[in-house]
Design brief:
The protein has 98 residues and is mostly helical. It has 5 helices and no strands. Helix 3 runs antiparallel to helix 4.
Length: 98
């Protein structure tokens, strides 16, 4: 659900950005794309032209709560350089085995 919400949010933001650029100019479009609060304000202020993009944007906000879901436990976090070096940071002494 998170990724569906993120796609809806992005689609609504881009759609409203294009509408803002057409109607109010570049500055409104930049604010609309960068600042989510302004996107909500612009969508409500110009509701007649932005019904569908505003609904997409709000649905995306509801479906994606802000943090992607984590799959797996602590063992999944051991990857990359730390796992390749045997669990320690590069340059740190490793415990003797055996």
């Amino acid at each position: 659900m998170y990724f569906l919400g993120a796609v809806l949010l992005l689609a609504g933001a881009i759609w409203m950005t294009v509408n803002a650029a057409r109607k109010d100019g570049a500055l409104a479009a930049i604010f609309c794309f960068i600042c989510g609060f302004y996107t909500l304000y612009y969508g409500i202020k110009n509701f007649a032209e932005n019904k569908v993009p505003l609904i997409l944007f709000v649905a995306g906000l509801v479906l994606s709560p802000g943090v992607p879901p984590r799959h797996g436990g602590p063992e999944r976090r051991r990857h990359g350089l730390i796992a390749a070096s045997g669990g320690g940071l590069p340059g740190t002494p490793q415990p003797a085995v055996g």
